[in-house]
Each structure stands twice: as C-alpha cells, then as structure tokens.
Design brief:
The protein is α+β, with helices and mostly antiparallel strands. The longest helix has 42 residues, at 364-405.
C-alpha cells in the first residue's frame, strides 16, 4: 500500500515571514538550551530542598502562607481548603493536589520525624490510606514549625515577587531548626535526586554545638553525636561503617530492619511480633507480600498472620505472625527479613541547593556548616533591624526629653505658631530638632507631662541606649553571634528534643564493634527449663551463711524452673549443646542483661532451636582455650570424645555434636586435655571414675560408647573431668547436692580408678529425707569460692563453699538450703 506524501512547500524568505526578526540556528542547540532551562527550573523551583531551611519551594510557601493568615500553633484550626486556596492564589502556580498532598505529608507523624503541620481529621495512615479531601480536614502550624518562621518580619531573609508580582514571598526561612537533617527530604529532579533521612534533634543540636566550638572537627568527630538516621517509625539500622561512609561522602546505603521479637505463648507455640517497621514501608503492602509468599510456598512455618496495630497512634505497629508447632522461629524470621520489606536499604544521597541555586552533594559537616552560616546571616540581619528600630526610637525619645526639659519654651513656641506645619518648623529651628522629633512632640498627649510619665520616657531612653550598645557589640563580635546560635540550638534541643527511636547496631567495624563497647567483666548466665536466658553481674547475690533461705533469683512463669547457672566473662564465645545433640555459638554479651527478678528472653530469639529441643550444656570459649578434646555424656551414660577443633566454626543453623539413639539426650559436655580422668554420678548415688584414654576420639556424627552401666530407672545427674589419680590425698573434692537441699564434699582419693562401662561405687546415701542427687561438681578445696544454689521456684542462696562439710562417700550430707515452700526442690548449682 502506497502512502500519500505531500509535496514540501517552498520556503519563504526570512524577511517576508511574520513575527519580527528570526535567527536561523541548529535544532539540536535549541533543544539542548530549552531542556537545560527546564531542568534548572525543576531543580531550583520544585524538586530539591535548600540546605539552609531544608524546604522545597512548595513547603516554604505553605508554611509562610499559614504564618501570614495567622494559622500559628496558638491559633484555632481552619479548613485545609483555606490554606490550599491561599497558597495557590498568592504563591504557588500549580495544581491544588500538589499543595494538599504536601500539607498532608507535613502532618503525618510516621512520615516526618517532627511534623510541621498540626492536622485534625483523616490525614492518611501507614497502610497507604489516602487523606480525606481538603474540605473535610483542618490544620494549623505545629509549635516546632513556628521556629522556622520566627523573626521573618525583621528583614532576616530576602524576599522576591510572586508569580504575578502582586505580593512578595521569602527566598528562604530564618529556620532556627536544622530542618534539612531533622526531617530529611526526598526529591527527583532532572538528572539528579535527593534522599536525606530524618535525624534526632538532640543529636543534631549536640553536633552543631561541637561544630561551633571546634570548627576544624571531622565527620568522625560529629558522629560521636549523630549516631545515624533516626526514623519516625523506629526500627533498627546496621553497620556504623556504612553510616560513616554515607556521612563522609554524601552517598551510601544503610540497612534497615523491622523490630521483631520471638515470644512464646502459654500453649508452648511461638509467634513473631513486629512492633516497628522500616521507614517508608507500607504496612498493608508488607502483609500482602507475606501472605503471597505463604501461598506460593516460599515461606513455610507460618500458621496465621494478622494486623493488631493501634489506630490511635500513627506509627504504632503490631503485626502478629503465629508459627506452626514444627517451625523454627529464628529460621522463619530470617526468611522474612530476606524475602519481605521487613529488611530494606535506605540509599542516602545528601543533595541540596547551596545559595539557593547550586545543587551539591554534601557531607554531614558541610550541611551543618551551611546551617550555621545561614543562622549567622539571620542573626546579623535581625540585629541590624533591631538596632535600626532602637535608634529610631531613641531619636524620638531624645526629642521628647528635650521638649520636657524646656517645656514652657516649647509650649510658648507652639502657641505662637499659626498652624501645625508652622509649629513644626519653629520647633526645628529653635530647638535644633529633626522632623521626626518635632512631629513626635506635637503628637504628645497632655497626660505625658505628668512627672511619672516623664520618668518613664527617661527610663525608656536609657534602656534604648543600653540596647543599642548591646546590638552594636554583637555586630562587632562574630564570637557573640556564634554564642547566640549556640543558645538557640540548645534551647531547641531542650524544648523539642525526643529520645532516639531507631536503634543503631555497630557491626562490621572494629573501632565501633559491640565488643569494644562492652567491658570484659565476670557475669552469670541463667537458663530456665522452658528456654529463657538472661545475664546478670555476680555481685547481684550477696554471700550468706549456710542453711539460710537466700533471695529471689528470678521470676519464672508457671511450671518453669532454672536449669543452667554458670559464670563466664562478657567477651567469651558461648557454645550451646542441645538435647538433640546439636551445638550453637553465641557471644556472652549478646545474652540480654537483666535484673535479678526478671524472666529473661526466650532462647529461640538467639538460637535456631527445633520444637522440643532444649539447651542441655553450655561452654565458655575461655574454658576451652587450653584443652584438646570435648567429652560428652548422655542421660543414659553414653560417652563420646571429640576434638575441640571440630567446633571452631559453628554456623548459625548449628552443627551435629553427637549421634543419639532412641530417646537418649545429650546432657554434659566438658573440655579435656587428653590425659584426664572422667567421673560420672547417678541420681541413685552411684559413681564411676575412669581414664579418658578408655574412649577413643570420634567424629562429630558418631554415637559414642557406654560409660557406666545403669540399673532400673537410674540416670546420670553429674559428670566432671578430674586429674589422674596419684594415690595421694587430692586437693580436689566431689560436691554433691540432693533435691531436698542436702550436700557434702568428699575427697577424690576415695574414688578409685575403674574401667569404663562398669556399675561403679557408692558416692552418697540417698533416702526419702535427702531425695535423689540432682547435681555433682568437682571443686578445688583450696580455692575460696562460693556455692550458689537455686530452687525450682527461683529461690537462690549463695554461701561459702567451706561451710559445706567434708564427709565420706557413703553418707547423707548436711543441709545447705532451706525452702520457703514445702514442695520446692533444688534445680541448679554452680560455683562463683
């Protein structure tokens, strides 16, 4: 099919074309110039904030319009439509939706760290719900927004004509607040974009004060105050190194995570509670994403998902994720972080307009430098304005004072004049007054001739002279101006400062690592039978006499009891061996420090434990540094020896430590040198001592061999590693404690060396009065250590170990603890 092509018309001579003079030029040059003009218009007049007040033109126009119509923080609310109309009619020649959407965002406490507009009505939600139409909502300025406009009437900033030249609008606001970093900014221009996160006001104020006192400080110095972004929705940000890079270069990514905790229900099932989400995350979209992943089988182990967020609090979040019985809570949470917006990255791009026209990427120090420079200019202009007004008033007061001092002559001169104009001329000529002074004298009321009124004029004149002197001193002293800036910023921090909402985790950087921030000191770790863990200092429990009742050690939930109690140091690596024969690793300082009576946190928040799996043995890295093997013992008396090097790198999901058979569980793991003896103690009072050479080293997946032959329902309750027998009296003793609170010490020389796998010998006489043995520990009799005993109900006693009697093997022992409740029994024992 042929196309009909029109013949080109003959071009007319340039001089015959209408429209005046025409210059021929290449179209590429015309397009390039026009595009650049358009791009600069978007950059300067729409998309990028000014580094001085942190506002784009539309924000500045809205705040100034509200200020002009009297919608300040102390005023009554007025319809948002009033503000939109005022802004469109006088300042912003664009659509009403752009203006109202900006008002809405400035009123949302989940979008702005410190909202600038106080909204009344529906202003949207974190679920992406739109605000009501502007005819339904009302607004006024927030109190903190007043500080952006204070002193604007004192010629502190420049003004330019509006779009039609009818009124003037400010080029920038006085901005007592460091608003650009305080509330951040997001904008996409032509060929460039800005993405500045919000920050904490108190931290910014501290950094500005430090910058004023130390102008040569570095970005690293300022980060001692500004820890990182502080988002209105809270959450957690990671890697101080990445934050430092972003602040130093003006660009960088910061990883954000939701605040999510794993909690246990009364039924024993687990749930994940999300209480804070990353900044700018749409909560409804987040829930839809999780539901989509569940339906696509990409996310398993979730039984139910619901939103229990409060509608009253704009940034209050409570998303509940119920898990299935067989789910690994930690594994599910990690999967959520990986696949959903619960973890995202904020890409910082600190781009702003400098001098109102030049877009520049700035680091943290330059941003604060420009803010301080702006405030210096504002205070200089304000001082000059106040000085000029004070001089004008002093000039008038000086004329009034002259008139009062020569009152009779002034009155005579006025009475002799034909009219007001002649009276003014005569006063100027006779008393050498200015035109303004003569006019003020003629405007004086008769009441001002009273003595008291005359005194007021003289007092005001003296005050004005002192004020003028003060203003002139400020203008001559840059140091005084910086002092005013420091006082203003300190006042802002005290009046409007809030606690940090976003937690900063300093990971990946040596100089800012958690280990450097936590002192290496002794600590006690408690683990309950239901899997709750906490850490507390050893001096929490004072030393008492033998036979006392102790103090409350923790508040356990119903039917829970303390199972493990051991001492270590905060910097130590802890190995957690579980009943299923697996091993996990954790830093001691990662265990949350708690009060003496608190319950602690569930271990599933730290370890990827399977349903029904519990921690049965723990080791500190400091305890294994000088040893060669780890010796393991199960509840049924199976023993196994592995090289410590096999557990050097324990992955987050754990490693297999021993292959268990049937219902057997791993209970004890102790380090050995390769030349030690092993002693096992049973609940029925039997014991056996054999050389560890009787057990060959095995791989991690091996099942082990028999250590002692048990009778009936007897089970292992104690295991320890001791030095080889020498036939002489040993410095070591075997401490046993029974369920009813009886205990004794027996010298190890009474336990002869036997072969592995035998029935053993008697170690204690167990009766209904004493109860079965619950714990057996080998200790050095020469060391001055304390015995700490905790009961099933959380009762704790700490007593000198020397107060426990040394008795023979086949004896009952002495009472070491009395219980407040009859049915209470000993749960755990440790030496500190």
């Amino acid at each position: 099919m042929k196309r009909n092509l029109r013949k080109p018309q003959a071009s007319l001579p340039l001089e015959t074309l209408p429209g005046g003079h025409i210059v021929a030029r290449p179209i590429s040059d015309e397009v390039a110039e026009s595009y650049l003009d358009y791009a600069m218009s978007v950059i300067i007049s729409r998309a990028l904030p000014d580094v001085r007040d942190g506002l784009k033109p539309v924000h500045r126009r809205i705040l100034y319009a509200m200020w002009q119509v009297g919608l300040r923080s102390t005023a009554k609310f007025r319809k948002s439509a009033t503000v939109v109309g005022e802004v469109l009619g006088k300042y912003h020649p664009h659509g009403d939706s752009a203006v109202y959407e900006t008002i809405v965002r400035m009123a949302q406490n989940f979008a702005m760290r410190h909202p600038l507009v106080h909204g009344q009505g529906n202003f949207g939600s974190m679920d992406g719900d739109s605000a009501a139409a502007y005819r339904y909502t009302e607004c006024k300025l927030m109190k903190i927004a007043d500080e952006l406009l204070t002193d604007i009437e004192k010629d502190t900033v420049g003004f330019i004509p509006n779009f039609d030249g009818s009124v003037k609008e400010p080029v920038v606001l006085p901005a007592r607040l460091p608003n650009l970093l305080l509330n951040g900014s997001v904008g996409i221009a032509v060929g460039m974009a800005t993405n500045i996160p919000p920050h904490n006001l108190r931290e910014l104020c501290g950094a500005i004060e430090h910058l004023i006192d130390h102008p040569d400080c570095t970005v690293e110095d300022l980060m001692e105050f500004v820890k990182g972004p502080d988002f209105p929705t809270g959450g957690i940000i990671y890697d101080r190194k990445a934050i430092l890079q972003a602040y130093a270069t003006g660009r960088g990514g910061v990883v954000m995570r939701a605040k999510a905790d794993i909690v246990e229900e009364k039924s024993g099932q687990y749930r994940i509670i999300v209480s804070e989400v990353p900044y700018q995350t749409n909560k409804a979209t987040l829930l839809e994403k999780i539901a989509e992943l569940i339906s696509e089988k990409k996310l398993e182990g979730i039984r139910d998902l619901r939103d229990e967020s409060s509608k009253e609090d704009g940034y209050g979040v409570r998303v509940v994720i119920d898990l299935k019985k067989d789910a690994y809570p930690k594994k599910v949470l990690n999967k959520l972080f990986h696949l959903t917006p619960l973890q995202t990255t904020f890409h910082m791009n600190l781009l702003a307009l400098v001098d109102g026209i030049q877009p520049r990427v700035l680091n943290l120090k330059l941003m604060l430098d420009h803010y301080v420079a702006h405030r210096k200019e504002v205070i200089r202009r304000r001082t000059e304005y106040d000085l000029a007004r004070a001089k004008d008033r002093a000039h008038i007061l000086e004329g009034l004072k002259i008139a009062l001092d020569q009152l009779d002559a002034v009155i005579k001169t006025i009475r002799a004049s034909f009219d007001k104009d002649e009276a003014k001329k005569n006063l100027i000529a006779k008393f050498k007054l200015s035109d303004a002074q003569a006019a003020a004298i003629l405007e004086m009321r008769l009441s001002q001739l009273a003595n008291l009124e005359r005194q007021k004029i003289e007092d005001e004149f003296r005050e004005k002279l002192a004020f003028i002197k003060e203003m002139e001193a400020i203008l001559k002293s840059p140091k005084r101006i910086l002092g005013i800036i420091r006082d203003d910023i300190r006042d802002m921090g005290e009046r409007f400062g809030q606690d940090r909402r976003t937690q900063v985790i300093a990971s990946g950087v040596k100089e800012f690592s958690t280990e450097d921030l936590v002192p290496n000191e002794p600590t006690i770790v408690m683990i309950t039978q239901d899997g709750y863990i906490k850490r507390l200092p050893p001096d929490t429990f004072r030393t008492q006499e033998r036979g006392g009742k102790g103090v409350v050690g923790l508040q356990t939930k119903e039917e829970d009891s303390v199972e493990h109690l051991f001492s270590t140091n905060t910097h130590a690596d802890l190995l957690f061996f579980t009943t299923r024969g697996r091993v996990f690793q954790l830093k001691a300082y990662d265990v949350p420090a708690s009060s003496r009576t608190s319950k602690g946190q569930a271990l599933v928040n730290f370890l990827q434990l399977a349903p029904g799996e519990k921690v049965s043995a723990t080791l500190s890295g400091e305890d294994t540094s000088e040893f060669k093997h780890l010796f393991m013992v199960t509840r049924t008396g199976v023993v196994k020896k592995c090289g410590i090097a096999d557990f050097a790198n324990v992955r987050r999901s754990g490693l297999i430590a021993i292959g268990l058979k049937g219902d057997d569980v791993l209970e004890w793991v102790k380090p050995t040198t390769g030349k030690d003896d092993i002693i096992l103690v049973t609940s029925d009072g039997m014991s056996i001592r054999f050389s560890e050479d009787d057990v060959r080293p095995m791989g991690r997946g091996a099942a082990g061999v028999r250590g002692i032959r048990l009778k009936g329902r007897d089970r292992i309750v104690g295991m320890d590693v001791v030095e080889p027998a020498t036939g002489k009296k040993s410095a070591y003793e075997l401490l046993v404690v029974t369920a009813s609170g009886y205990g004794k010490r027996t010298n190890l020389e009474e336990y002869r060396l036997q072969g592995r796998g035998g029935s053993g010998i008697k170690t204690a006489k167990t009766t209904a009065k004493t109860g079965k043995i619950v714990m057996a520990i080998v200790m050095n009799s020469k060391e001055e250590r304390d015995l700490m005993v905790i009961s099933m109900n959380g009762q704790v006693i700490r007593l000198p170990i020397q107060s426990v009697s040394v008795l023979g093997r086949d004896t009952q022992g002495v009472r070491v603890m009395r219980f407040k409740e009859e049915k209470d029994t000993v749960a755990s024992v440790t030496l500190v």
